[in-house]
Write a structure and sequence with these properties.
Length: 396
């Protein structure tokens, strides 16, 4: 193999290139990215960068930049598998004999009429700078979506005393973590001054030039000078959608070795995938391909994809048992949230330990009585034990 191309210059693309070099690959590596910045870390965007405690430089990814050819500010538009080329938005073609698909996701935008300015999303450095510069001490911020990013931004802004209201159709924040955790998270935010409108939908935005308010479906009008729409993300899959690969809800499907599967169910040896754009078979997902949109999953898939791409299919290893357990963290006020396992699979939740004063919390998620995940507030070390417990032989 002499020409490896990674499409997507985020965490997965960066780690993959580092992994190739660490594995001793000395051929050409090209990273194609539609961003104008070298790869950086996204978790600080809603936390330290927004708070101003990190500069953009401090959002650098860990480790040295790998020795690669960067093709920056260029979008991949098409994957021609027959000719083994990636076609870019300027018509240029990048040839590969090994390819990584790592184009991640973009923020889901509001699907309806919007004022000309004042409504933001948060996925990259430019989004963060634009949102930050819209907020002053008198800002009235409405966050649409009480998921992780919505809650992190609420916490960051409340620490500065900014007025924040969070709206969601869900009955409690971060609903993937269940009602027990959600109710406690809501109480922590409310104690810090966040106003919630939960179980309520947004009908639309008020204002023409600039946003002035958010109209809820039940008629309530929330005054707003700035709105953040944090309602999930959309896979950046358009460029390979007609390449004959196996797809599931617009992400590419791999086997447990990160090798991409084609539409007829056969592995494609020269194409691997990693990160938020890829699904792979997970033992807590009953072996079905699952897309895990977490930092550690992008890192682990990219590391494995780099090693495996250099090997014949028959020698490729599946995801290691511990790496196959998804982990996630979030920082909100002085609460460090950490989880392990496949939280979406849980059908019941049990509180194992709780100290509202600290605050600390440990909750287990079960499905049909079997442990599938655990969540901790300020009890991060206990999650390591769950990670080991949840590790199962990876599917082959
Ligand atoms: C604000 C924020 C906070 C987060 N906080 C946490 C956290 O606390 N904990 C956690 O576990 N996870 C967190 N995450 C999730 C984590 O950052 C992602 O799981 C991770 O970035 C996925 O990496 P990736 O390389 O797959 O995708 P991305 O980081 O999205 O990188 C994909 C890259 O591909 C580029 N691209 C897209 N389409 C094309 C194309 N057609 N051609 C060329 N380039 C293209 C994109 O512009 C981007 O640069 C957070 C995410 C965000 C946005």
């Amino acid at each position: 193999m002499q020409d490896v191309v990674a499409v997507g210059g985020g965490l997965a693309g960066f780690r993959f290139a580092q992994g190739l070099r660490e594995a001793g690959y000395d051929g050409r590596v090209t990273i194609v990215s539609d961003e104008k910045h070298l790869p950086y870390d996204r978790p600080p965007l809603s936390k330290q960068l927004l708070a101003g405690t990190y500069t953009e430089e401090q959002c650098a990814l860990p480790g040295d930049a790998p020795d690669v050819t960067w093709v920056m500010g260029r979008r991949a538009e098409r994957l021609d598998r027959e000719r083994r080329v990636v076609v870019l938005d300027d018509g240029a073609e990048v040839a590969y004999d090994g390819l990584l698909i790592a184009t991640g996701r973009r923020a889901r935008t509001w699907n309806g009429p919007m004022p000309a300015s004042g409504v933001h999303t948060l996925r990259d450095l430019e989004d963060t700078a634009a949102f930050r510069s819209a907020i002053d001490a008198d800002a009235k911020v409405v966050i649409v979506g009480a998921g992780f990013i919505g809650c992190e931004v609420a916490a960051t802004l409340r620490k500065e005393g900014v007025s924040v209201t969070v709206v969601d159709v869900a009955a409690y924040p971060m609903p993937v973590m269940g009602s027990e955790v959600g109710a406690r998270a809501a109480a922590i935010h409310e104690a810090q001054g966040v106003r919630f409108r939960l179980g309520r939908g947004v009908a639309g935005f008020e204002g023409e030039e600039r946003v002035t308010g958010v109209r809820l479906e039940d008629g309530e009008l929330l005054e707003a000078t700035v709105v953040l729409v944090a309602v999930g993300s959309v896979p950046n899959s358009e460029w390979f959608e007609d390449a004959g690969l196996s797809m599931d809800r617009s992400v590419v499907v791999c086997d447990a070795t990160c090798t991409v599967i084609d539409a007829s169910g056969q592995p494609v040896p020269e194409i691997v995938a990693a990160g938020d754009i890829a699904a792979w078979p997970h033992h807590h997902g009953d072996g079905a391909a699952v897309c895990i949109e977490h930092w550690s999953n992008a890192r682990d898939m990219a590391d494995l994809a780099a090693v495996n791409l250099l090997l014949p299919i028959s020698d490729r290893s599946p995801m290691a048992a511990t790496a196959s357990v998804p982990t996630f963290w979030s920082d909100q006020y002085d609460v460090k949230i950490k989880s392990a396992g496949f939280l979406r699979a849980a059908d019941s939740w049990t509180i194992v330990a709780e100290d509202p004063e600290k605050p600390s919390l440990l909750v287990e998620g079960h499905r049909n009585g079997e442990l599938v995940g655990a969540i901790a507030f300020n009890m991060n070390r206990s999650i390591i034990g769950y990670q080991r417990q949840l590790a199962a032989p990876a599917p082959s």
